[in-house]
Amino acid sequence: MKRILGFAGSNSSKSINAQLVANLLNRLSADFKTEQIDIRDYELPFYGEDLENEKGIPNKAQDFAAEIEKNDAVIIAINEHNGSRSAVFKNLIDWVSRHNRGFLTDKKILLVAASPGGSGAATAMAYAKTAFGIFGGDVVETLSFPNFYDNFKEGEITNSEIASEIDSKLNTFAQQI
Fold this sequence. Notes:
The chain is of the alpha/beta class. Helix content is 44%, strand content 21%. The protein has a single domain (3-176), classed as Rossmann fold (3-Layer(aba) Sandwich). It has helices spanning 16-28, 49-55, 59-69, 87-99, 122-134, 148-151, 160-176; strands at 3-8, 33-36, 73-77, 80-81, 84-85, 108-114, 138-145, 152-153, 156-157. Strand 8 and strand 9 (156-157) form a beta hairpin. One of its GO terms (molecular function) is oxidoreductase activity. InterPro entries: Flavoprotein-like_sf, FMN_Rdtase-like_dom, NAD(P)H-dep_reductase.
């Protein structure tokens, strides 16, 4: 059975992106082995060349890369801070890419972004779509989820138009794996 890993680029214990990932993985769990991880379990010092030269690649960066490696596909939820990706997510990617530049090679990616406002974290998603290609990933679908608190309640998507769009994108993603 093909495997899908999901995670959010947020270190918030109440991450709306992590909630969205959980919903998406649940929708795919009948046909795939799914797992969600929390990047808070992979806390790393801020990347710096001097630090890398002095201490090497931290084990947690290597462990995160190993989690991605054992899966066929990845659902990544990008969070946005002030119009950009979060520092904690960028730092994780910086370390992991130093360990293995092609850490997403041959991975099918569903890139999603939830936000409490109407933009759906569009600017952070644009960055991620480009960056993940650099690391070998194949972004099959993207999904922007705006106005999260109006459209998601108790683990479920309440907006029928968004739910229909998600079903379509999940179907395309699943077919590509």
